[in-house]
Amino acid sequence: MNFPSNPLPVQPPRVVVTGAGIVTALGIGWEKNAEGFRAGKTAFRQVTLFDVSRQRVKMAAEADLPEQMPATLLSARQSARLDRASALLLLASVESWRQSGWEPSEDIPVVLGTTSGGMPLGEDYFRQAVRTPRLHRRQATRAFHYQAHSQGRIVLDALGLGGPATIISNACASGACAIGQAWELIRGGAAEKVFTGGYDVLSQLVFSGFDALQALSPTRCRPFDKNRDGLAVGEGAAMLALETLESARRRNAAILGEIIGYATTIDRHHLTQPHPEGNAAFAAMSQACAVAGITPAEIDYVNAHGTGTLLNDDAETAAINQWAGARAAALPVSSTKAGIGHLLGGAGAVEAVVCLMALRGQWLPPELALATPDPACRFPLVMQPRDARVNTVLSNSFGFGGINATLILRRWA
Amino acid sequence: MSRIFVSGYGAVSPAGWSAAELQKILAAGKSLPIQPLERPGWEKRLRTRAVPAPAARPAFLAHPRLRRSSPITHYAAGALLESLARLKPDSSRRVGLVVCLQSGCVQYTYRFFEEALADPATASPLLFPETVFAAPASHLAALLENTPLVSTLIGDPATFAQGLALGADWLRQNRVDLAVVVGAEEINWLRADALWHLEHAAIISGGAGAVALCRDVEFSAGVELSAVTKPQSYSAHKSRIQAARAMREEFSPVKNELLCDGLGDSPRTDAPEIAAWQDWTGARLSPKIILGEGLMAAAAWQCVAACATVAEKKFSSAIASLVGCNQQAMGVRFQACPAPDKSDTL
To answer: Could A117 and B120 be called an inter-chain contact, meaning their C-beta atoms sit closer than 8 Å?
Structure first.
């Protein structure tokens, strides 16, 4: 039974990461991405996936898919039908899975975050339905596979898992919320291991939507720059293998880091605009610290949501200033969206992996495009690549609709 | 073990804007009339059962956040507020909100994408935010005063049971005082067309259902959430029929129980659920045959009907069998519990 469930553990178990996989426009896999994030590389180019000729902005961070996908347990038919979203998710999943050393199982829940699932398939459905309404070829397949739980099914089948698969769609906080929910499942005694992460692909609808809102930067995405003028969108996926410390030790598994805190709050101010003082973001950071049992003084780096829009960065700046207090003056902050764009439902998961990279490598990811830090920022922005002592990091993710999520990760040494 | 109770429920469906109207139509047992839905460029019309206009304009539509929102949010708000109506407004009560969707905000998505393809320069920036799956939950949270936890789950209709389990867990951990689980869908021709491609016989419908959960028996509506089965995911190793049977096997037999199943007008889609419950000899209710294929809303109606039937003391317990179309099978059991001996409003 899912309910009634087991009694809550007297002492919640510690939750560690034993596998991580990542795909962004910087490349496929931990190594290429770590190299790119450490150097502050950017990966924007003219969009080729759909027509942007009449859009105000024409750049995004497209990921390159490999010519051949890794071998999995998918059938030949499933492999041949993989849509772009499933392919990105699968690449991240396979990397994370192999690193974890887990075996196929009926008892490993999967928790995924996404905003739009297989939206490009839905767009193809729309175009054919409108332009050639009497042509039904492939429409049933598109209607079936564009749904996010179809991508979840791909993960289950590819890795030999029995589920359940839970799909969270809390807008741009989806990836962080998925990891947070997975963390809570383990802490609450409902599972010993959970496979979790987030993904999203570039789609014409979402690109056009941000362009219609005039939220896309017509120049360069520069989060927390005084002259910032918008965000850039990207695509990608990241997956994490989470398990109890006891399980990881029992297996003698390599541990990449520990998740020690998570909180989610809601900002009711507006559907798309955060409260100007960032009160829900402040609450998310404060609550996550309280859950972790630490203070801002113990945080060594903040991976900000930092979209590069005026409103988001203003609100997040206010929230970080308030939350960090005196610590702000020496607390390094950056937004990796400057390099790979905003990955929407994938953002929180990808940024959690970037945090693991920083913890493992003892460096901070810079924003090279940042020229003039916004004077409202009382914290130092990471503008150049640098090594640093990093033991505990905090990652923010905020979404349309007001869901705010904060994750706190700690180095495993 | 923490016990979890149902403090209220609400429904917006082709039967009308309340759980009472839903129950009345289901009790009559007669399928609602089908309306044709025009599909541009094709003379063959699609079939639907639509939500009727409310008898009076709901007061919540005056809320600034709901003025431009789409019907799915209106349906969800109607069901949500009805589910909380038994309880006195109390801003100190922490309400957790889980919104479950399958197709989601299809009306504005269709309109926005149509505009974007025609001319991106004039596509409405007001429409785009309403296309996001998280939009209804955001609007509902704005309607309520104290919602520390809000989440949107997407998936096939069995996801509604995942939502109930999540809400129960929030209560168990004392993170909220009430948890409301809402399932909602809206209709447009594109969604109906997609469903037609998957199942020609299906008659599409829209609406919402909500079940409010609480920890304290004194707030209960005489109904307890007694079980949510383990999610039985469809996979390469588990077919829909195997998953449906595994779900059914989790329920031990009890006397005087109602089965609120998910059978509709789609023989192919219904086959696994028919097989799973073929030995069921007790009473049975099939809301989708009467109301249409409402996807997540229909799953919510099944649960609302199960709760209402138990609350009305017609049965001592009821099972909602949620055999989803392409993700998982889950089941939920509600049973009678002592209702507080108080006035209607607590």
So the answer is: no
A172, A177, A355, A377: the active-site residue: A172
User: Considering the entire predicted model, what is its pTM?
Assistant: 0.98
Residue A389 C-alpha, separation from nearest chain B C-alpha, in angstroms = 34
Q: What three-state secondary structure class fits B167? A: helix
Q: Does A200 touch chain B (CB under 8 A)?
A: no
- Is residue A270 annotated as part of the catalytic site, yes or no? no
Q: Which of A271, A275, A279 to mutate to test the interface with B (most CBs of B within 10 A)?
A: A271
A210 occurs within a structural domain: yes
| pLDDT 10s digits, A29-70 | 999 999 999 999 999 999 999 999 999 999 999 999 999 999
Spell out which residues of chain B touch residue A268, defining contact as CB-CB under 8 Å: 138, 141-142, 147
- Chain B residues whose CB is inside 8 A of the A213 CB are 125, 128-129
What does residue B269 show for φ and ψ, rounded to 5 degrees?
Answer: -65, -35
CATH code (residue A60): 3.40.47.10
Could you confirm whether A377 is annotated as catalytic?
no
Task: Based on the residue annotation, tell me whether A305 is a catalytic residue of this protein.
Answer: yes
Please tell me if residue B211 touches chain A, with a CB cutoff of 8 Å.
Answer: no
Distance CA A44, CA A317 (A): 25
Beta strand pairing status for A45-46 and B150-154? unpaired
For residue A354, how many other CB atoms are within 10 A of its CB?
Answer: 26
Architecture of domain B224-336: 3-Layer(aba) Sandwich (3.40)
The predicted-structure confidence for A97-120, as pLDDT tens digits, reads as follows 999 999 999 999 999 999 999 999
Inter-chain residue contact B138 with A402, CB threshold 8 Å: yes
What is the rounded CA–CA span in Å between residue B189 and residue A141?
A: 18
Provide the b/e sequence for B92-110 (b: ≥16 CB within 10 Å): ebbbbbbbbbbbbbbbbbb
Cβ separation A163–B193 shorter than 8 A: no
Question: Which residues in chain B are contacts of A210 at CB distance < 8 A?
Answer: 128
In a domain, A3, yes or no: no
Range of the domain at A314: 261-410
Is the same domain home to A227 and A266?
no
The gap between the terminal CA atoms of chain A, to the nearest Å, is 38
Same domain, residue pair A284 and A189: no
Q: Is residue A4 part of a domain?
A: no
Q: What is the pLDDT of residue B1?
A: 61
Domain boundary among A225, A251, A277: A251
In the three-class reduction of DSSP (H, G, I as helix; E, B as strand; rest coil), residue A77 is classed as helix
pLDDT digits (tens, 9 = 90+) for B276-323: 999 999 999 999 999 999 999 999 999 999 999 999 999 999 999 999
- Domain total of chain A: 2
Alpha-carbon torsion (A296, A168, A208, A81), positive or negative: positive
A191-194 contact pairs (CB < 8 A, 24+): A191/A107, A191/A108, A191/A109, A192/A243, A192/A244, A192/A247, A193/A102, A193/A105, A193/A107, A193/A108, A193/A241, A193/A242, A193/A243, A193/A244, A193/A247, A194/A108, A194/A109, A194/A110, A194/A111, A194/A242, A194/A243
Whether residue B116 and residue A204 make contact (CB cut-off 8 A), yes or no, is yes
DSSP letters along A343-376, please?
-GGGHHHHHHHHHHHHHHHTEE---TT--SB-TT
The yes or no reply on domain B4-219 and CATH 3.40.47.10 is yes
Tell me the residues of chain B between 242 and 261 that have a Cβ less than 8 Å away from chain A: 250
Interface of A with B in 12-51 (CB under 8 A): none
Q: Are the C-beta atoms of A222 and A371 separated by less than 8 Å? A: yes
Strand locations in B121-234 (E)? 150-154, 178-185, 204-205, 207-214, 223-228, 232-233
